Amino acid sequence: MKLNRILLKLSGEALEGKQGYGIDPERLHDYAEEIKAAADKGLQIAIVIGGGNIFRGMQGTKGGVGRVQGDYMGMLATVINSMALQNALENLGVKVKHLGGLAIDPLCEKMSREKAICYLDEGYIVMISGGTGNPYFTTDSASALRAVEIQADAILKGTRVDGVYTADPEKDKKAKKYETLSFDEAYEKNLKIMDLTAFTLCRENDIPVIVFNMNIKGNLLKLVQGKKTGTIVQ
After folding, report:
1. N or C: which end of the chain has fewer CB within 10 A?
2. Looking at the whole model, is its pTM more than 0.85?
3. Cα–chain-centroid distance for residue 177?
């Protein structure tokens, strides 16, 4: 699969690294280097990152926080993570623009399709924080929406496992890896890859999702170079 423009989806928890909370500077630097290596090959990259390492809306409701307020708090957590990754990339000399479902002057501009595509064409990496800007939507749904808006060739979902398995490979040693899957198969098998809203957006707009291990050095570059790694859902 030839990739020219992608939406890279990263989980907030991935930034915890070895410390198990917040943002691990070493993990942040590693991710920035991986992204820079892919961008240096001419790939246009937009990035959506979750906020679960700081605050997750659904968990907040268990602590007495209202769902809507909790979701907005989660959106702000994605802004913090995006700012951290933006800074790490800029420290490596990468040009970055930060757009958001929530416009927070002077931290990020309001997301628009035209603006994002323009920045990508000008050679910037585009961070897109703040989810969809609305409660009740996950960052998976936000990443699918943004991928559709910028006409991405694929969503690259960076995780800590090397693809989609029949069961959790960290818990079940007999779990088998899928090389390819259809969206319908993933839904029927109840594989927890993305939520149904995200899946529907991807399926209706013919945007494949590649699930791969972002924590293995060089994996992102492999995908850019057309080498197989991870699982393709299409």
Report:
1. N
2. yes
3. 21
Query: In the prediction, which pLDDT does 196 show?
Result: 86
Strands annotated E in 25-153: 44-49, 96-100, 109-110, 125-129
CA–CA dist 176, 187 (Å, integer): 17
Spell 140-165 as b/e; 16+ CB within 10 A means b: bbbbbbbbbbbebbbbbbbbebbbbb
Domain residues for the domain of 43 are 5-233
Structure tokens at 177: 């890896």
The low-confidence residues of the chain, meaning pLDDT below 70, are: 56-63
Domain count, the chain: 1
Instruction: Provide the strand spans (E) within 70-205.
Output: 96-100, 109-110, 125-129, 154-159, 164-165, 177-178, 180-181
Dist CA 175 CA 194 (whole Å):
19
Tell me what pLDDT residue 58 has. Answer: 60
CA–CA separation, 227 and 2 (whole Å): 10
CATH number, domain of 153, equals 3.40.1160.10
